[in-house]
Amino acid sequence: MYCDKVIELLKELERSREDTIPPYNNDGINQVLSEMKTLDAEIIDFLRKQKDNLPLDAIRLRRAAIERNKRCLMTYIWTRLQRLKEMRWEIGAILPSDVRQNLSQSEIEWFNNYCKTLVSYMKTIGSDTGLNLTQDTKPPKSLYTEVRSLVDAGKLELESGEVLILRKNSQYMLSRSQAEPLIRQGILEQYSHSGSQTMVRERLHGGTQSAVFG
């Protein structure tokens, strides 16, 4: 049946989670393009050989199949790019390796250009230093948030100039502007008090920094 291959491409996307991107199916796309070329060649052949008695239904069927293949291919590409765009806002400009390896070269170039365009735009708004639109995408209830360190991440230089040691399973109070990038990277998670749990704050003033997260 016509368009079976392109429908399978869309089903691949549908079966995957919305926060992931399945491997770019280059073979599947080439098969769809090959089918479209074959259908177009058949239409041209009808027009050349049967001018006096054109099989209009057959021509319309093939033309409709070509247009459907086009729409489905555009949906496949557009959906993947939309997921990439959402990842830029959720996790930043550095894609996880398991995501990056599933992209085509064109998608990688598109993502890099999108990141550059977004950064350039953010520099033109707000104060002299610009405005990071990827932070606080939802109105915060407080300028500070309680977080738990998921790993031994070393030393974090605070906006005040103090240095905080991030130890696994310890809790801290950080400004949202510093906490959110680390949450996206999987270094911290938001933390809520329950029962008799208390906040653990550890600070180290001065000293040589082995790792600084900004």
TrEMBL record:
SUPFAM superfamilies to which the protein is assigned, alphabetical: GINS helical bundle-like (SSF158573)
Keyword Nucleus: yes
Alphabetical UniProt keywords: DNA replication, Nucleus
Record-annotated DNA replication complex GINS protein PSF1 C-terminal domain positions: 141-191
Quaternary state and interactors: Component of the GINS complex.
Broad class of the protein's primary localization: nucleus
Function: Required for correct functioning of the GINS complex, a complex that plays an essential role in the initiation of DNA replication, and progression of DNA replication forks. GINS complex seems to bind preferentially to single-stranded DNA.
Taxonomic path: Eukaryota, Metazoa, Ecdysozoa, Arthropoda, Hexapoda
Subcellular location: Nucleus
Family of this protein: Belongs to the GINS1/PSF1 family.
Name of this protein: DNA replication complex GINS protein PSF1
Organism: Schizaphis graminum (Green bug aphid)
